[in-house]
Amino acid sequence: MVEILRSLLFVPANDEKKLAKAGDRNADALLLDLEDSVLPSQKTSAREMCCDFLQTSQTQSKIWVRINSLDSPYCLDDLKAVIPLQPAGIMLPKPDGPVDVETLSKLIQNLEGKNKLVKGGIKILPIATETARAVLSLPLYARVYLPRLLGLSWGAEDLATDLGATTKHDENGNLAFTYQMVRSHMLLSAKAAGVQAIDALYEDFRDSTGLRNRATAAFSEGFTGMLAIHPAQVEIINQSFSPTNSQIEHAEAVVRAFAENPNAGAVSVDGKMTDIPHFKQALNVLSVSKKIAN
Ligand code: COA
Ligand code: MG
After folding, report:
1. Residue of 120, 59, 125, 121 whose CA lies nearest to 88
2. Domain annotation for the chain: domains and CATH numbers
3. For residue 15, how far is its CA from the centre of ligand 1 (angstroms)?
């Protein structure tokens, strides 16, 4: 069973202090970053520190690595260094679509073979919206066979750069229409592909109320998890992306009502009409709560 990753905490791989405590933060996954939080002059040392962490960390969190993009001069060296150490997965920045995920998958497969590792264990999570081309390719994730694909995640910042935009916000400070549309498309594409849907990070890491509101809304829309940049965000995200006790109790009551009325297409639960779509939602809530890491 593939566990749901509710919180994925970015940790710059060249930051000794942040690495030292990252494992204790209760994140479902750590994303050791070799890409944008690491300057070109530090790529080599960041890669070494990342490998050291993979070899020595005792953390309960899954360890993922965000490599540099496929068209960068660092990508192959990143993969050659980290794949032998079997991270749980690789986050791929700036793919132009599922074709790039296939390319990455082949590179990983090759290195798994060379290092005599079990094939297929290392998953892939693309940031699936960082270029205009990538956005237009989102529906293809549902049509291409990508067994390593754990989920889709998205981000607005690099897309804004690709679009030549001056800001990603509208006049009220909300995400502009283009980015809201992209976010919804990513959600739909992840669901169509049958993989996890991971929301973008919330930049204002001191605003815990704002984060909780965003994360709770995202969970109720169908997102399964969210990227984090600061340890203070992890617990809020974990809570927000877990079904509440009352949601679980209600789901159990719905399942029970259908079990007790095997010939009914609609039943009454707590005085409300409950039919097959509610039954499927209830099964989904129970399945999510089972797949949560702890
Ligand atoms: N992972 C692990 N530890 C982190 C962390 C992270 N992402 N962000 C902060 N911390 C640690 C700090 O080292 C500090 O530890 P201490 O209590 O032992 O001193 C503690 O959490 C509190 O940090 P704080 O002072 O509130 O924040 P900061 O100013 O040190 O860092 C950021 C702020 C945004 C620079 C930092 O959170 C960060 O680097 N985030 C990730 C950036 C990243 O990876 N970006 C790429 C993806 S977009
Ligand atoms: Mg980026």
Report:
1. 121
2. 7-240 (3.20.20.60), 245-291 (no CATH)
3. 9
